[in-house]
Each structure stands twice: as structure tokens, then as C-alpha cells.
Amino acid sequence: MRWIVFVAAFSLTGCVLDGEDCGLGLELVGNRCVPQKTPLPYRGDGHRDSGFLQRDVGDRPAVRDVGTTQPTEDPWAAYEIVRVIDLTAPADLRAEPDAPGVDLDAVEIIGDDLFGFAVSVESADVQDPFGRSRFLDPGAAIGEEDSNWVSLGGGQIDVRLGLSRSLKSGDIVRIAAPPIGNFEVYDVYICTARNVCDLLGGGENWWEFELP
Ligand SMILES: [Ca+2]
């Protein structure tokens, strides 16, 4: 709701952003700062050459109807990667130049018989639009919530889940973030290793999504 109010208020001012408001490495597309370059593969600890990096160019993954190819098992069984795309508005990126945008501490999965979390970074595009970010390590999103995070700065990240069983309907995807963000909003997708992705929805700071 705060976001909606903000957008409304912003629109009423008639203020027009230009590309310089986004900071270094970002450009204005619509009302959103996006990276000027295609994300580079993450090569930190835990990187696996899964072929996932040969993905389509562009910010938004292909979306399909789930359950159409493997009708005999849970539609989420093949999903193992979570993508977080930082949609923080330019003015709100600027409000926290030392921790710009979405602060991602952990991606956790909670089910009746399951607790899991991200175990590796598949790809990352962490931005530092004002050259002042103190939270640039994508690896901070791996593991359980521990008050150590990466600030995406208007970028995005794909993390691979480590789970004792396949995902299924009813499992919760938790985006763990410190409670300090200012209108730091994002979209969350869940993807297969072949980069088939479904939008789970939009969140702000700490948020949970249930697999339908
Ligand atoms: Ca962390």
C-alpha cells in the first residue's frame, strides 16, 4: 500500500525522471532503473555450470502455464531456482546509497516436512549506482537468514535451492530481508534449471509466497 501511495503521489507531482537519476550503470526504462548491461555469470563459491546461464536476453523470463508437461507429479517438482528482480524506484535507490535497493539476506523454503534455503548463486547482477554500496557480495544471499545481505541496487539475482525433496504446492518461499528498507520492492520468480519461470508475485522487504 505504501508503494501504491508513493506512486500516486509521485505521479501527481508531474515530476519526470531522467536517466541521470538512476546512477552509474543503470538507465531509466519506464519508471524503473535497469542495468545497462546483460548480467554476468556469478563465479563465486558454489557456482555450477548448469547451462542455466544460456538464458534469453531481457529482464523478464518466459512465463508458462505450470503443470502442462509433467501431469503425473506436482507441478513444482522441477523448480529449483529463485529469481529476485529489484524494482526499487530511482528516488528510493538514492535514499540509501550505501545499501541501495533490495537487501536480500536469504531465500528460504518452508514446508510441513521441510526447511531449506539457497545454496549457491546461479547468476547475479548486483548494481552500485552511486559507487557507495557496502553490500556487493551476492554470496550473502546463500544460507539461512543471518543478518548478512547483498543490496541489489536495482539489479537481480538467481539462487539455486538446496532441498531434501522436490518443491510442492503449499511450500512457502520466504524472502528474508532486514527490516530497514525504504520502499524496496521486488518481483520473485521461481524457475526450473531450463529457465522456465513463473512469477510468484511482488514483495517489499521481508515477504513470503505460497506455491499454489
Ligand atoms: Ca544472508
Structural overview:
The chain is built from two helices and twelve strands, in the order αβββαβββββββββ. The strands form three sheets. Strands 11-10-3-8-6-5-9-12 form an eight-stranded antiparallel beta sheet, with no helix packed on it. It has helices spanning 2-13, 90-95; strands at residues 26-29, 32-35, 79-86, 103-104, 106-111, 114-125, 150-151, 156-162, 172-176, 185-192, 197-204, 207-210. β5 and β6 (114-125) form a beta hairpin. With 212 residues, it is mainly beta. The protein folds into two domains: 1-38, no CATH class; 79-210, no CATH class. The structure holds calcium ion (CA).
Give the SSE map.
Layout: H1 2-13, E1 26-29, E2 32-35, E3 79-86, H2 90-95, E4 103-104, E5 106-111, E6 114-125, E7 150-151, E8 156-162, E9 172-176, E10 185-192, E11 197-204, E12 207-210
Antiparallel strand pairs: 1-2, 3-8, 3-10, 4-7, 5-6, 5-9, 6-8, 9-12, 10-11
Residues 105-106, 140-141, 143, 146, 148-149 line the site of calcium ion (CA).
